[in-house]
Amino acid sequence: MRRDTVSAYRRRARDTEQKVDESAAVVKAERAADWDVRRRAAQEARAADTARPKTREDLIGATLVRDRYGWHRIAKVNTTTVDVYISPGVTKRLQIGRVLEASSFP
């Protein structure tokens, strides 16, 4: 039986470090790809955010608005808020900044 030599130990250590480095490179590449996907999604979300109605004038003529809960029919457009019907005769006040979309459906 032969004893392990220092050179054999060093060779195994070198091989192990090489495998670890290769695995780390694969993980870094996957994370970079995931980061690119998330960055593009954030850019698209920012671009969509610029399409949001920001002022009262953007909502004049619209009959429906959408917030994070769904579409609502407009009862009244105020300077900074929009009153929407949530049930017959009952209205809810939304801040214009929380409105995601506006539509003029007949």
Report on the architecture of this protein:
This protein has 106 residues and is an alpha+beta fold. It folds into two domains: 1-51; 56-103, Roll (SH3 type barrels). It contains two helices and five strands, in the order H-H-E-E-E-E-E. The chain has helices spanning 6-49, 56-59; strands at residues 64-67, 70-77, 81-87, 90-95, 101-103. The protein has a five-stranded antiparallel sheet with strand order 4-3-2-1-5. The longest helix is centred in the N-terminal third of the chain and has 44 residues, at 6-49. The protein is rod-shaped and about 90 Å long. The model has no long low-confidence stretch (mean pLDDT 89).
SSE topology:
Blueprint: H1 6-49, H2 56-59, E1 64-67, E2 70-77, E3 81-87, E4 90-95, E5 101-103
Antiparallel strand pairs: 1-2, 1-5, 2-3, 3-4
In short:
This protein is α+β, with helices and mostly antiparallel strands. It has helices at 6-49, 56-59, and strands spanning 64-67, 70-77, 81-87, 90-95, 101-103. It has 2 domains: 1-51; 56-103, SH3 type barrels, CATH 2.30.30.
Keywords summarizing the entry:
alpha+beta, SH3 type barrels, 5 strands, five-stranded antiparallel beta sheet, about 110 residues
Distance between termini? 91 Å
Strand order of the largest sheet: 4-3-2-1-5
Structural class comes to: alpha+beta
- Can you summarize the main beta sheet? 5 strands, antiparallel
Q: Helical content, roughly?
A: 40-55%
Low-confidence stretches: none
> What is the helix tally?
2
Estimate the strand proportion: 25-35%
**Helix-strand topology string:** HHEEEEE
Based on Cα principal axes, name the global outline: rod-shaped
The total domain count is 2
Instruction: Kindly provide the radius of gyration, computed on alpha-carbon positions and rounded to a whole number of angstroms.
Output: 29 Å
